Amino acid sequence: DQQVKQNSPSLSVQEGRISILNCDYTNSMFDYFLWYKKYPAEGPTFLISISSIKDKNEDGRFTVFLNKSAKHLSLHIVPSQPGDSAVYFCAASDSYTDKLIFGTGTRLQVFP
Amino acid sequence: DAMVIQNPRYQVTQFGKPVTLSCSQTLNHNVMYWYQQKSSQAPKLLFHYYDKDFNNEADTPDNFQSRRPNTSFCFLDIRSPGLGDAAMYLCATSRELEPGSYNEQFFGPGTRLTVL
Fold this sequence. Notes:
The complex is a heterodimer of chains A (about 110) and B (about 120). Chain A is an all-beta fold and about 110 residues long. Chain A contains no helices and eleven strands. In chain A, strands 2, 4, 5, 9, 10 and 11 form a six-stranded mixed beta sheet that branches. By secondary structure, chain B is an all-beta fold. In chain B, strands 2, 4, 5, 6, 9, 10 and 11 form a seven-stranded mixed beta sheet that branches. At the A-B interface, strand 4, strand 5 and strand 10 of A face strand 5, strand 9 and strand 10 of B.
């Protein structure tokens, strides 16, 4: 049973536009959510996180929104750049374990 | 640069022939993880070490073993690889989880295992 779901396997966006990547979760005990970015032939790298006590966290072009009642979070990238083309993983954790639960990823393609 | 290194990057083995994948880190993190990722699937945690304390996931097959001889190194041993074990194997590290903080994990580039 997947606790973290990314229902869109791929997304294609024009350069300069907004990219919105979505993630849903089922476990209400999760209190941190992280986004990782993965380029081909590299390991995932941490991008941005959000605590469950917040509904928004912003870092430059990247903003993550959390809707706890809907158990939904989204990553917004504005403006999108070709270098943002990668696979984006949503992950969740609770503060009592050392584990992350990952989604299946969304492949973002930003075209000129 | 501090990093997580995995060797080899590509490993080919034969059905049933034992194989060992290695991971090393220069971050001096006390937690190390092994994940299995199959195509279009989420990375799946196999086990992790908190220092030398081994934590196995309940659904990790017995075919998978691990060793952590010191802080820097961790090994994944697959005793009798089957065709279904072909996957990307990711090693990750993290600091000890602090109360009220999130668990940022640092990943190596992975080892892609092919089983013939």
